[in-house]
Amino acid sequence: MRSGVLRYTCRTLNPDQNKRSSAEEQTGLWFMQKILNILKTIAKRPLLIVLVTVIVGALLIVSRPRVEPVELNERVWPVDVVEVRAADEQPKLDLFGQVIAGRRSELRALVPGPIIEVGKNFREGAAVTAGELLVQIDPFEYRNDVAEQKALLTEARADLEIRRRDLDRIRDLYEENNVSEQSLDDATLAVEQSKAAVEQRRIGLARAERALRDARLTAPYAGVLNGVSAELGKQLSLNDQVAEIIDTGRLEVQFTLSKAQLGRLLEANDEVAGRSVEISWEVGDETLTYNAKVERIGAEIDSTTGGVSLYAVIDPEEGTLLRPGAFVWARVSDKKYEKVFRVPESALYGANQVYVVEDSRLQLRLIEIEGYAGDDILFVSAGEPAIRDGDRVVTTQIREGGAGVKVEIR
User: Fold this and answer.
1) Contact criterion met (CB below 8 Å) for 194 and 186
2) 70 located within any domain
3) What percent of the chain has pLDDT over 90?
4) Counting Cβ atoms within 10 Å, is residue 337 exposed (0-12), middle (13-18) or buried (19+)?
5) Which residues pair with 366 in a beta bridge?
6) Which strands sit side by side in the sheet containing 392-394, from one edge to the other?
7) Among 118, 219, 300, 307, which is least packed, fewest CB within 10 Å?
8) Is the pTM of this model over 0.85?
9) Roughly what angle, to the nearest 10 degrees, separates helices 2-13 and 15-44?
C-alpha cells in the first residue's frame, strides 16, 4: 500500500519526464522496425545482397589510404684495407722464459773452527772477485799441525838416511862373508820401512797444509753472494754452509718450444742450437734487452705438451742487472716462409676466406694459411681468382660481409 502511494506520488510530481521517456521508447521501436523491414526485403532478394557487398567493397577500396613507394638507398660500409705484396717472411716467436744461473755453488766450511775475519764484501748481494777472501777460520791449530807434520817428516827422512847407510855397511860385510844373508835382508827391510814412514809423513804434511789453506775460504770465481749466514765470531762445524755464490757472468734463460713450434724449425732443417735469441726484461716502464744464443736443448721432451726446454746463454760481455729468477721474454726466429702475403688476422672470414675491394665492392678470395706472425697471418692464394700483388684486402669485420657488398675505403 505504501509502495503504491509512493509510485503514484513520483509520477504525479514529474509529468514532463514521463512524456519524454515514452517518446524515446516509441522512436527506438520505430527505428528497429525499419531495420527489420530492410533486412526482410534484402533476404527476399539475393542479388541485392551481392550488389550491396560489391558497393561496400568498392567504397572501401576507393577510400583506403594510399602508400607511396619509398626508394631505399644501398648501404655503403666503411672499411680499412691493406695493400698486399708477396714477400719472404721470417716471423719471431715470443716465448716466456726464466733466468737461471749457469753456475752457482754452495760455500761451506771445509774445516771446523771459529771465524776470526770476514771479507769486506762478505754481504748479501755483494759482488766478489775470484780468490777474494770471504771467511777466515782461526788457523792456530792448523799451523801447529803443519809444523808438527814437518818435524815428523824431517825425522822420518833422517831415519831413512841412517837405515840406508846401515844397509850399505851390511852389504859390504855380506860380500866379505862376515854377516849372514838374514842380516842383509833385515837391513833391506828396515830401509823399505823407513821409506814408507817418510811417505806417510809427507802425506800427513800435505793434509795439514790443505787444512790450513781451507781455513781461509775464498770465492772460487767472480759472482754475487746469496744466502750469507755467517758472521765474525761464529763457531763453524765441518760442512756448515756460510753462503752461496752465483756466477752472474754466465746467466742462462730457460724457455720452452711447443710441439708445433719445434716441428716448424725441424721441418725447415734449421739448427736449433746456436740460434740467436733476443732477451727482453721489463723493469717498471723500462725494457732492457740482451743478446743470447741457444747453447743446448733439454734432455727430455715434456710428455704432456710434447715441447722441449731450450737454454740460451746471455752474452757475458754485456753488463747486466739480471738475476736468477727474473721472468723475461725470449724472441727467437721462426721458420722462414717464401712468397707469402701478410695481413692482420682481422681480415680472415671463416677459416680460409678474405675479401678484396674492386670497384668499391667486395670480392671473395680463397686462401691457404701458411703460418702466423704475431697478430698477422701469412698465407698464399688458393684457387681462382687468385690474389695478386697490389690487391687491397679488407681488414674490417662487417656484419653483412659478402661478395658484391658496396664499401668505402676509409
Assistant:
1) no
2) no
3) 41
4) buried
5) 353
6) 81-83, 392-394, 353-358, 361-373, 376-381, 337-344, 87-89
7) 300
8) no
9) 90
